[in-house]
Amino acid sequence: MQNSGIRVLFEGSNFERLLGGLLVTIEIAFISIIIGVVLGTIMGLLRTLNSRPLKAILRLYLEAFRIIPILVWLYVVHFGFSPLLGIDIDGEVTAILVFSLWGAAEIGDIVRGGLESLPRHQLESGKALGLGTRQLYRYILIPQAVRRMLPGAINLATRMVKTTSLVVLIGVIEVVKIGQQIIELGVIKAPTASFWVYGFIFILYFLVCYPLSRLSKRAERRWQN
Amino acid sequence: MMVYIFGGRVGVHMQLNWEFMIESLPLYGAAMWLTFKLAFWGILFSLLIGLVFSVILYYKVKVVSSVILAYVELSRNTPLLVQLFFLYYGLPKVGVHLSETACAIIGLTFLGGSYMTEAFRSGIEAVGRTQIESGLSIGLSKVQLARYVILPQAFAISIPSLGANVIFLLKETSIVGAIALMDLMNVAKDLIGMYYKTAESLLLLVLAYLVMVLPLSLVLSWVERKVRYAEFGD
């Protein structure tokens, strides 16, 4: 019985299909992180400027993602925006939109934290040398801040890959959905399939996230001191 | 709010139906209560596991420590959704049948346990060596040292990260709808499906989470400030 269950993973193209599904989630995470880093860097820089209203708005934006679960935002865009705009927004696009905005908020906070944690004398020495604001950021602040930000950013990437598993709930065909299809197809021939398929997906996620979180820990030890 | 953002034709359709919202409040209330119960048990068990496991890790108990470290990595590097699906759909195939509620609590505990372990552990590690050595030099036993010197200080140090984990787990309960529990997500989804009151249902959904998480988040930042004061003040 149990043998027939595990065999389901390797029947036909099931194995490749599951990996392909995993790729869909990774792709969503990857694109979102890239967009998030670009937007987030801008937001982080803006948050270090001395503008109270700007700071307040960006802080509010961050808290919106910290307080309301990502799944709720996925639902809001998926169920709310499509009928509102009268167009059908693809699940993957919805996911990338929400994850990018979330990523931007978190990266923005990491960038702000990185910049603010730099010793004041770095900034003041730069000024004493006669560097302008742009030069100050370009040559002094950003290079040093990037090192401090890397562990947090990689950590966010891990969280994002894990969170992309939620996109199945807004109808994206990814690894969990393909797993469900395989289970449904084999419901008579391999009744124990769901144990093996979900177990396998569990391991797949681990194999992607574990190296990332190791990397983050190593970066932390190396650069944060 | 969205009325003004998108304007025009859309604005007409976006009139919020207050009557509908008030009528659906009890449904949201029930779902919030469910979320609260699941989160309460999940968080409580996670804290217990975290406390026990971090002490075991601190004393470097052979074999058990390695198992705990493996668990921490497994739990932290996999999504709750997949953990829940495995518990709910996978385990019955090998003879383990659990109710939806049990799955949700076990899933939250499996996830939260590792986060709490890490939080307590970093707290314990942050207790100064001089504290421990002073304790030993005035003749405290290992148990006394843990009870009176290490744990109280470790706990104070870990409060911010413990609090962050509590909020994290509370938010993670939004996923339990995937295993057929009538939580906030499913209430909203059902109302949208049945009455097509999309804006109202989603607004209530966002508000429900805001009501649950915002006070907690405010309390946490207040506690954090107090703890920081306790650390640096007299």
Automatic annotation (TrEMBL), chain A:
Pfam families xref list: BPD_transp_1
GO CC terms of this entry: ATP-binding cassette (ABC) transporter complex
Subcellular location as annotated: Cell membrane
Start and end residues of each ABC transmembrane type-1 domain: 22-216
Residue ranges of the TM segments: 20-46, 67-87, 166-183, 195-213
Gene3D superfamilies per record: MetI-like
Keywords, sorted A to Z: Cell membrane, Membrane, Transmembrane, Transmembrane helix, Transport
GO molecular function: transmembrane transporter activity
UniProt-recorded name of the protein: Amino acid ABC transporter permease
Source organism (scientific name): Paenibacillus agri
